[in-house]
Amino acid sequence: ANKMEELQTLSRTQPEYRQCSVMCFTETWLQDHIPDSSVSLPGFLTVRADRDLKRSGKRKGGGVAVLVNNRWCHPGHVSVKCRLCSPDVELLAVSCRPYYLPREFTSVVLATVYIPPSAIAENACDAISSVVTKLQTQHPNAFVAISGDFNHASLSATLPTFQQFVSCSTRENKTLDLCYANVKNAYMSKTRPPLGQSDHNLVFLCSEYKPLVQRQPVTRRTVRKWSQDAEEALQGCFETTDWMTLCQGYEEDINAMTGCVTDYINFCVDNIIPTRTVRCFANNKPWITSELKNLLNEKKRAFKEGDRELLRSIQKQLKIKIRDSKEAYRKKLENKLQRNNIRDVWSGMKKITGFKQRKDCTDGSLDTANELNKFFNRFSSGTNPASSSPVPSQSDIPSSSDPTFSCHTPALLSSNAVMDSSGSINLSSTKSGDAAAPFTSPSHLSVSRSQVKRQLERLNRNKAAGPDGVSPRVLKACAEQLCGILQHLFNLSLAQEKVPVLWKTSCLVPVPKKTRPSVNDDYRPVALTSHIMKVLERLLLVHLNKQTRTYQDPLQFAYRHGVGVEDAIIQLLQPIHCHLDKAGSTVRVMFFDFSSAFNTIQPDVLCQKLQKTQVGASTIAWIKDYLTNRPQFVRLKNCTSNQAISNIGAPQGTVLSPFLFTLYTSDFQYKSETCHLQKYSDDSAVVGCIRDGQEAEYRELVERFVAWCGNNHLTLNVNKTKEMILDFRRNRVESNTVSIMGEEVEVVEEYKYLGVHLDNRLDWRKNSEAVYKKGHSRLHFLRTLRSFNVCSKMLQIFYKSVVESVISSAIVCWGSSIRSRDLKRLNSLIKKAGSVLGTTVEPLEEIM
């Protein structure tokens, strides 16, 4: 009674208490004979869940209650969803529909829990997770908050997508009372004095959530109104164009001719394809139509005029219209599925669920854009530094005379070439029976009209246009009409060994590496280049791949057909498992990290390496021109920077750059019985199988690889380079650390390699936690799609693509070694997904 009197006094005298939306209490000690009137506050609705003596097994104490402010939510819009009482947990869950709620939420679900000190924490957390999962399935777009006295329990493992907001002490110097929510940055916690003589402080949670419409303001976009008639008109325009007359006078000037053709294409598009300006709201749903918006505006007008009857009538129409609009959109998607139009179906499902929504460009001023452009171009200078840099000498590469450095072709991948211990390709050692036919390089490459047309038809029409303004939709729709002139431009470019400036101009879009970037290095530059140039790059890539096949590193697993991440991880793990089965054995793995690897490619060094392959001199000259004198600018949300000229590196986001990087690093190869170097793009790892402390070969390989990187202008980031030591012996021997450029490399117990978490015990505990957390977060999208009442086939497609793909990622690498506890946990996640789908889903054992 004394606590209720104090609470009533606080609510009358202090606005902070009176204006609370919700008050949650645990250990109420209420029983059935105590009426609600004895524990009610004026202006609040009281909802109780008293302790059940039989179910809890305890005679007194316990009980939870929620007080909902009538000014925040009408009492008729508060409903009890679940009451739970057991020896491990007491729970009360209520659903509210407040007067105001951001459009991204449909309702608010509040759960108040009390976990006794004697409870089994794991059982309590599983019970809470089961209730919350069921409520999220029923209300997929609801804001869910879980608060109460957790004592020794934590929901971080069972509900990993929920964030905990209480950071202050709630009892002495401990934080026992917690609040979890399914929205990040929702609250800020403050302590308040306890009620009466309670040993727990009150916790006041202030809302810090910003609605989506405030975080992402309305944007205006100019879009083209494409139609079948418009496409046919554009095709007819290009069909009747006399390209010879248009390009007359430019003769062999590739830059002028390219500019003329590009300007003409854009001129025709501007005159034939109409445009319109649309406003995009961040919280708009895909089924919102213009008729629905008109009804919403009429509702606003009726409210301002105070016409209650009209407002009530419009509200009824609005409810029916929303239901009809959602039903029409659902049928539209299902019709596309029946017509096997998977791309549009997938696009529609992503819009419904909000999965991988398009993010706005980075905001900033002109000074910020110029600063970023200067930072991205920091490796370039007035003269090409590669021209004055020495070519890597043979002494920097492992010597073939050293018997320790004998290399063997890996069993995982076959190659026609034989590697010697120097890490280079010995073409003369190729077996005649396995050798491919010699490739005779012409004076310069050329492409045919059919090749150009085929590549134009493969373009993704939904991609953004490059700096030249030519949309891939135009190129794809008019492939038959444009392939002739583009073939002429491509062959002219290859013959002159020159890339038009317009084609190699890059628009750099800074993509944040972190959620909240603070410095320039927190952005990754992704280059938008001409789609016409990308067509030429794809055609050239086919020739380069044939000409350099015997030169490529068999242990380079990136950008190769039929080889991927799982092969790289298996190649890493197989020798580790085999070696650790032997007595007195350890394994050391060095994971190298490069600083802006693509941006430090030296064109002259690359050309010298290409000269050792079967690539023709004309093609090499074309590649050098492709990489040098490249104009680039940074585009932010509201501005673009000044242009800068880059002579170093390869632009990220292009077709040729990844392949050129693998060729740049392919002259250092190593594989012996105890050590090997493997690569996945710029992710390089050295594996050393050590026995009886003999690690000289491993250390020498690391030293020579570091020296090779320095001579090839690849900058190692020693702070991010990590080493992992695997030693299963009972009496472990302390290992000496490895130093790179005078800095000791940190030895870690776990490392994320190619998206998979490796640990020095090889029990996959950390990886299982990461998979569970990511898979649990994807369930929200599945629940959202299910609430739309789509057909079961669409649900299955979405589950396979979004949820199961995460759970089974690289499962061939870790599936047989996972702990039974983690296997059970992942299967429980799959079971939750099955309850959303309304069917039984195959467990992890069957997926493996």
Structure description:
The chain has 848 residues and is α+β, with helices and mostly antiparallel strands. The protein folds into 3 domains: 2-209, Deoxyribonuclease I, Chain A; 373-444 and 497-753, no CATH class; 765-847, no CATH class. 38% of the residues lie in helices and 17% in strands. A 6-stranded mixed β-sheet has the order 4-5-6-7-9-8, covered by helices on one side. α9 (290-305) packs antiparallel against α10 (308-338) and α10 (308-338) runs antiparallel to α11. The longest helix has 31 residues, at 308-338. It is globular, with a radius of gyration of 32 Å. The relative contact order is 0.08. The model is unreliable at 382-442 (pLDDT under 50). Residues 423-432, 440-450 have a biased composition (Polar residues).
Give the SSE layout:
Elements: H1 2-13, H2 15-18, E1 22-26, E2 44-49, H3 53-56, E3 64-69, E4 78-85, E5 90-96, E6 108-114, H4 121-138, E7 143-149, E8 163-164, E9 177-181, E10 187-192, E11 202-207, H5 212-215, E12 219-224, H6 228-239, H7 243-246, H8 254-272, E13 275-280, H9 290-305, H10 308-338, H11 342-353, H12 366-376, E14 418-419, E15 425-426, H13 449-457, H14 472-477, H15 479-496, E16 506-512, E17 523-528, H16 531-547, H17 565-580, E18 585-592, H18 603-610, H19 617-627, E19 630-634, E20 644-646, H20 656-664, E21 675-680, E22 683-691, H21 696-711, E23 722-726, E24 739-740, E25 743-744, E26 746-747, E27 750-753, E28 756-759, H22 765-786, H23 792-807, H24 811-814, H25 820-837, H26 844-847
Parallel strand pairs: 6-7, 16-19, 23-26
Antiparallel strand pairs: 1-3, 2-3, 4-5, 5-6, 7-9, 8-9, 10-11, 12-13, 14-15, 16-17, 18-22, 18-23, 19-20, 21-22, 24-25, 27-28
Helix pairs in contact: 6-8, 8-15, 9-10, 10-11, 13-15, 13-16, 18-19, 22-23, 22-25, 23-25
